[in-house]
């Protein structure tokens, strides 16, 4: 198909249909990029099946369905971080940290 034939065939499509096709293409590319970036950044331990190569093949070969499949079931939730009692800071420690970051002028009145 030559460029002239392609231009003629695209001009035969109505503008609303072209807008819908453009929106679908944008959604597909966005999901594709989102899935690939998430797969790249996610540790192997948080990927279902424990193998990033399998998910890369699924995303690349199955297109929008592969990206949706990865985003829906291919990711395992990030484990919650628990704060132990030893990591909590006393009000005095918090005050020192705030003073070191903002100085003592940040307080409207002296709390001591």
Q: What Rg is obtained from the alpha carbons, in whole angstroms?
A: 26 Å
- Beta-strand percentage range: under 5%
Q: How many strand elements?
A: 0
Alpha-beta classification: mainly alpha
Low-confidence stretches: none
Order of helical and strand elements: HHHH
In percent, how helical is the residue content?
A: 55-70%
Largest sheet: number of strands, sense, barrel closure: none
Principal-axes shape call: elongated
Distance between the termini: 82 Å
Mean pLDDT: 84
Tally of separate helices: 4
Summarize the topology:
Blueprint: H1 3-11, H2 15-41, H3 52-74, H4 91-102
Helix pairs in contact: 2-3
Q: How would you explain this protein's 3D organization?
A:
The protein has helices spanning 3-11, 15-41, 52-74, 91-102. It has four helices and no strands. α2 crosses α3. It has 112 residues and is an all-alpha fold. The mean pLDDT is 84. It is 63% helix and 0% strand. The protein has a domain at 12-78.
């Amino acid at each position: 198909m030559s460029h002239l034939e392609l231009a003629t065939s695209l001009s035969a499509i109505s503008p609303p249909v072209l807008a819908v096709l453009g929106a679908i293409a944008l959604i597909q590319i966005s999901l594709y990029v989102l899935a690939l970036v998430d797969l790249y950044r996610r540790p192997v331990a948080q990927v279902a099946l424990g193998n990033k190569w399998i998910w890369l093949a699924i995303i690349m070969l199955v297109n929008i369905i592969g990206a949706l499949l990865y985003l829906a079931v291919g990711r395992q939730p990030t484990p919650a971080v628990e704060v132990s009692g030893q990591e909590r800071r006393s009000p005095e420690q918090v005050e020192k940290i705030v003073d070191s970051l903002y100085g003592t002028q940040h307080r409207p009145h002296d709390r001591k």
